[in-house]
Amino acid sequence: MIRCSITGSLPKPAWLAEPGKLWPEWRAEAASLVDAKRDATLLWLKLQEDAGLDIVTDGEQSRQHFVHGFLAQVEGIDFVNKVRMGIRNNRYDAMVPQVYAPPRLVGRVHAAEAQLCRAHTRKTLKFTLPGPMTLVDTVADRYFGDRVALAMAFADLLNVEARALVADGVDVIQFDEPAFNVYLDEAADWGVAALHRAQEGLACTTCVHICYGYGIQANNDWKKTLGDEWRQYEKLFPMLAKSRLDQISLECAGSRVPASLLGLLAGKDVLVGVIDVANERVETPEEIVATLALAQEFVARDKLIACTNCGMAPMSDALARAKLEALGRGVALAG
Question: pTM value?
Answer without folding.
Answer: 0.96
